[in-house]
Amino acid sequence: MTTMIIKDNSPQAKQFIKFARMLPFATVIKTKSKNLEDECGILSDDVFFGERKKRAKPAISRFKVALQETKTIAADISQNGTSGYKTLDDLLNED
C-alpha cells in the first residue's frame, strides 16, 4: 500500500485528487491533522529519497568497480589477446 500526502493547494494538486477519487483502488482522506506523518509513520519525500540515495551509493560504487575491471580486462585483451580468458563458448561447453 502506498500513502501519499498532498499539502499543495494548486490546481494541479486538486485535479490529481479529483482523479484519485475516481479510482476504485484508492481512498482519499481529507484531514486537518498537522502531524499526520508522525501519526502514521509516513516518511517525507526528502527523507524517502535521502534513504534511497544512501542505499544506492554502495550499489553505484560496486558498479563502478565492475566497470573499471571490465575496462582493464578489455585493455588487456586488446594488447595481449584472449590467452588466459575464457570465451562464452568455453564457459557454456564446460562439464
Q: How would you describe this structure to a colleague?
A:
This protein is mostly helical and about 100 residues long. It has one domain. It contains four helices and no strands. The protein is elongated and about 70 Å long. It starts with 10 loop residues before the first helix and ends with a helix. The mean pLDDT is about 80.
Keywords:
elongated, 4 helices, 95 residues, mainly alpha
The first-to-last residue Cα distance is 47 Å
- Average of the residue pLDDT scores: 79
In terms of DSSP E residues, the strand content is: under 5%
Structural category: mainly alpha
Q: Sum up the overall morphology in one term.
A: elongated
The stretches of 5 or more residues where confidence is low (pLDDT under 50) are none
**Number of beta-strand segments:** 0
* Helical residues, percent: 55-70%
Can you write the helix and strand succession as a string?
Answer: HHHH
Q: How large is the radius of gyration? A: 26 Å
Q: Count up the helices.
A: 4
